[in-house]
Amino acid sequence: MPPVQMKTPKGTRDWAGDKIILREHVFEKIRGIFSLHGGEELDTPVFELKSILTDKYGEDAKLIYDLMDQGGELCALRYDFTVPFARWLAMSGVRQIKRYQIGKVYRRDQPAIARGRLREFYQCDFDYAGTFDPMVPDSEILSLIVEVFEALRINVTIKMNHRCILDGMFAAVGVPQDQLRSISSAVDKLDKSSWEEVKKEMIQKGLFAELADRLGSYVLSKDSHSNDIESTISFIKSDELLMANGNIVKGVEEMELLLQYLNAYDIAAYVKFDLSLARGLDYYTGLIYEVIVEPSPTADGTELQVGSIAAGGRYDNLVAHGSTSLVEERMAIARELRQANISVNFNPNASQKARKQLDSADCAVISVYLEEDAATSDGIVIKILTLPEKNLEKATVVDREDLVDEVRKRLA
Amino acid sequence: MPPVQMKTPKGTRDWAGDKIILREHVFEKIRGIFSLHGGEELDTPVFELKSILTDKYGEDAKLIYDLMDQGGELCALRYDFTVPFARWLAMSGVRQIKRYQIGKVYRRDQPAIARGRLREFYQCDFDYAGTFDPMVPDSEILSLIVEVFEALRINVTIKMNHRCILDGMFAAVGVPQDQLRSISSAVDKLDKSSWEEVKKEMIQKGLFAELADRLGSYVLSKDSHSNDIESTISFIKSDELLMANGNIVKGVEEMELLLQYLNAYDIAAYVKFDLSLARGLDYYTGLIYEVIVEPSPTADGTELQVGSIAAGGRYDNLVAHGSTSLVEERMAIARELRQANISVNFNPNASQKARKQLDSADCAVISVYLEEDAATSDGIVIKILTLPEKNLEKATVVDREDLVDEVRKRLA
């Protein structure tokens, strides 16, 4: 038997001695600033149901670590904290929160170890969930980013763009709708690859060379404006083709508003508006940004190129995914019961989680709740329970057409 | 398409709100006591090479979560922190340390959620590595356990046993050597199952019924002594069959020494000597213990049965696993070189990790190092490098029989 190889898996490392002390010191600083902004901590499992991670990461989905199918549910290691957070929001019914999460995430890519990016690596996330006035939470997050890196004494620049402007630009030059995300993902590589390489990828993905060049004239326009928000907005506004696109008009308005707020936070100097920034992830819908470290000379005189060390953006639709269907079903059932003159207390915050719907039914006599069940024709099972019985196991499954009769019978 | 099911995988949960605040408070207390005892923190990857976890967990190995084979190394989620710690010791060459690790571990069993045991759960480990006088570290760990639960205001009892006594007892009644661990694993279930059930399992595992009954007379002897260390030792010493076994004599001596130290720490009152305690894991070689919560009445008057909330034991051979072969090989090569009158600086602490061997070769002219390589006939590759070149990529692979000549040539 050959000896057992003593190593950590590819792209992973141990943390010990000075290294872990420094790491904990950094996390403590970050945690302090997160708390200062009212953040509440969340911790989620290291793996999620595979179905929850599906269709969230575009081309990068191939980098997800799957667990082996050993019977039972199919699971995969978390790829980020955003999707688990959206899943938690949907389950918990929480509508408004600033949450933070610090922990490890997993990506099965070629690790850039010299730049500090392994396959198992830490992320420190801060997210604003809720409905707010435009750009107010976005600007607070940017201000928080500046505070974190000032505390860590790292000089950074925040590159930003707006998905509406990016998508509008693609539409304006004629990129077909179904190629938007794949072309966007090619543009995203411009910080590491040359325009020739990116153009080649676009053509391989089915884009006409002429459209690629038209796109190039915008995403490579850095030299024609000074890259600050003001001059980039002027550059866009001076282009009739772009301003004919409603998406772009909306994006420009938001960027103008953002600029006001960044001035109020006194952090506009940290920011560059970069029309070539795209970010790989599918779920962003508004402002996107990436924080890059200003190259600093190392002990031996060479420059250390770390690249991007923080990133984020606005995602408006991720939480709704998979959690609203049942809300509409519940509305329909409430209407039916009310039409039958049965008083219904409709919980506006309940997620589809049965337990949660029941907990909030304290003053009710009969509790009706819905469960997702892929095995039924409409994907839903209706159950009723006569209170004060609280054991969900004792609930009765009822056919949709019998529901009103069954509820009446129990009320009698 | 059926809606995506919003839930966490079986046996996992989110931590938010008051729950995570309480959890962090508990960890802070534990961390404080670990530091008070001179513990240094270690953090290891959430998954390890599958080969490193193999043959460490006996029958429980089936509970390991494997990652899917997506190309590259075969990996599995960590099952505990002990095996990763042993792997880290072997890799780092560290010989003596008190290390602690707080984090999540993974077991694909039927989760006992009501008792707080999920599939993804936290462990807070404190381990003593090194060569010390008998029972000194063991008693310090027991004292640390008492301090932790006093700080958390949880009333506990520590059940303990000694693997030498357990194994000696099995040998004394005639359990065949190759059935030791599987019979031990059956005995371990006595806290949850009746003697009849355990006996049935033993017979299914191939043990004669007569031997099972003889074993029963010992492991069920709780009533014939008062379960404190002193009276249990007397019980064992009064039994000629047991005392004829060398293993048992050694175990009893250690338990007597331990009792002295527990009295010095003033914690003997927390301890019960339980001859039926076996612990499932294969790697223990000496004292083993399990901490159980004293049942406490809950708000509704029922008793909450949490069961064991901490456990551990001495494992003398886990670290050596896979790391010593190379030490002997290095000795042989050093001898050959010295015989050829070549001065050799033998690093007594170097593990088999090439990088580490090289780092410590500062004053050398030529560095010789060994790497494990399952593809070669003897499982080893020899490489040499002329300093100050430090790039391992530039090392030359040398046949064993050419080594002396090659070194001479370079020295000339």
Automatic annotation (TrEMBL), chains A, B:
Any single Gene Ontology cellular-component annotation: cytosol
Key word Chaperone present: no
SUPFAM superfamilies attached to this UniProt entry: Class II aaRS and biotin synthetases
Annotated keywords: Aminoacyl-tRNA synthetase, Ligase
GO molecular function list: histidine-tRNA ligase activity; RNA binding
Protein EC: 6.1.1.21
Gene3D superfamilies: Bira Bifunctional Protein, Domain 2 (3.30.930.10)
Domain of life according to the entry: Eukaryota
Enzyme class: ligase
CDD domains registered for this protein in UniProt: HisRS-like_core
UniProt-annotated binding residues for L-histidine: 80-82, 107, 123, 127, 279, 283-284
Coiled-coil intervals, chain numbering: none
Any one GO biological process: histidyl-tRNA aminoacylation
Domain Aminoacyl-transfer RNA synthetases class-II family profile span(s) in chain numbering: 100-308
PANTHER family: HISTIDINE--TRNA LIGASE, HISTIDYL-TRNA SYNTHETASE
Family, per entry: Belongs to the class-II aminoacyl-tRNA synthetase family.
Protein name (database record): Cytoplasmic and mitochondrial histidine tRNA synthetase
Protein source organism: Neocucurbitaria cava
Primary gene name: HTS1_2
